[in-house]
Specification:
Number of strands: 7
Number of helices: 14
Structural class: mainly alpha
CATH topology of the largest domain: Lysozyme
CATH class of the largest domain: Mainly Alpha
Radius of gyration: 23 Å
Shape: globular
Strand content: 5-15%
Order of helices and strands: HHHHEEHHHHHHEEHHEEHHE
Strand order of the largest sheet: 3-4-5
Helix content: 40-55%
Number of domains: 2
Length: 388
Amino acid sequence: MSRSTYLCLFFLCLFYFPLQAQERLKPYEDYIRKYTPLAMTQQVVYGIPSSITLAQGLLESGAGNSNLAKNSNNHFGIKCHNDWMGKTYSHFDDGEMSCFRKYAKVEDSYKDHSLFLINKERYASLFELNIKNYKAWARGLKKAGYATDRNYDKKLIKIIEQYDLDKIDKLALNKHRAKKIIRNWEKEYPEEIASTEKPAGESESSKKVQKEIRVKTEKTNRKQELKARKETQLAEKAKDYNYIAETSRDEQIQRNERNERTDNLPHVINAVQNHTILYKGLTPYILAQYGDNFDNISDEFGLSPQRLKKWNEWPSGYKISVGDVIFLSKKARSWEGEDSVYVVREGDSMHSISQQFGLQVSAVYQLNGMTFGKSIEVGQELKLTAPE
């Protein structure tokens, strides 16, 4: 069987399952197809479930389309921390400019993510879990503080179950098949490979020793490499920081200027790049860019325009505007965030509030015991969550 035929059959078996309650998103499926073998490598070599690695990569990088992923190959949102002396990238995060690790290749990001979990003491308890228990791993990552998002574990679990990623964990346990898939991936994507560590063939009794040797070697090599870079690192960091900070401050002004210049052009070709998938609660969404319409968004995400309009509760003739929140699945019935009450402001409508919190319009009325269609007033308090 040829390499291409083998991979086609593998991914056909992986993804040919009945769709769940929510549609699968094309960028997520594309990302999974591309990086499944790389995630399997992390499971075979480091003992981290492929499903967890893929779910984190999807969530942290917006399926590889976030600015951080595109500009620094950082697919796991790992910040510099005190022990990082490699290249860095300054990125606006949580209301401030933060230092993130920058990699030459995506493969380096995956490998460093595995080493990050292995070398940090707070993640040690994860490696005592059953490798097939993705729910325990997701909850363990949240408990250990990998992310501040209160729904981080729920998002990982939802992604894993929606895209059947746990099946990849089981496949990676068969090391013979895993090695074939990993070797084929290395041939298919040579640009991602520097020195991908091959699945170890050691016995169960020697795994611990081999891991310790591997970790020590990694640390030694890293120290030697970083020592040589140290003099140029500060200059690169300052350069990156100044550029990104300037871009962040002027981003809105530049966007407005572009819109003004093109407002009077009747036939502008839509040249928007891929959107980054974000979340409100557990519901994925994107922000509309200039030139967006239902057709190009439908093509990008593999969703029909009718579904997009229905999920976002827009009328049939609605035209997308820059900055619109566009949900990619059905909105929730109760808010999953921290704020349980919203105070109505000037210009608000039930629909705008529902889009702000990823709630169905009917749910907002129901949560507040209001008749559907009843008007709201400035200063009125609206409940966003169902009583426990």
